[in-house]
Amino acid sequence: MDDAEKTRMKGEILDEVGQLLREQLAADEWGRVLVEVVHEGGEPMVAGIDVEDIVGDESKVDAVFGAESARALLPVLAKATEALCALEEVELDDVRGGTFLRQRAGGFVWLPGLVHLPSASLEAEWDALSAKLEAKNASLEERFRLGEHDRYDVDLEKQTLVFSKDGKPRVVARAVLIATFAHASRVWAWGGYNKNLPESVRAASAALADAVPERDIWEVSTPLFPTDAGTAWVLGALVCDRAGGDGVYRTPTEGGRAYLLLRDVREA
To answer: What does each C-alpha distance from 184 to 89, 95, 205, 228 come to in angstroms?
Structure first.
């Protein structure tokens, strides 16, 4: 199945589910619903539902989700979540459900995993942080042509990232691990909490998160949590901004990506 067919099928599922959410679960009163789904006896079953970002009548939301008619929708939501996971090429047992987001312009989008509402402080700076990081990374690319090198080598213990071309080191940078983002589980994990890493790497990574002064950003104080690629990028942008970094570099890992804060980028 090609990408166009997957997109079409996802659209059809979301159109059908979205209509049910609006008609029976007061979707115009809330912004997102997190549907936890597990397999029991080989069949997907809803294990829990959380509603977030209530923008309308909260009592109405409580009433519809507590009604018997809501229970009748659970098998539909479970099957839809299972199908959407398959189209996203993730395992339901890895992500444990999905998140339906109501768009202001109409319709719904869906995220694998139970993705909570971003903290208010992070959301308020979302666009500005993204723009700053894009500008910093664009400046690095313009100055050093990082994407034109043959290879790169990372040594997290030495905090080095070396870009090479024609067998010779061309650009070096000081690199500290911010976090990892796993494709299968869609989980963001701060490097400071990763017990599989050397202590020096963990300490340097933890120092980056600890340096973020805003204590009301729950994402910074939570060791690991499900999220989406867009939020992962903004979290990297937040750390880069607060640490005064030169940019953020994403490197492939086994099953995901590592986010590295770059500083002191220079020609070798």
So the answer is: 8, 7, 23, 11
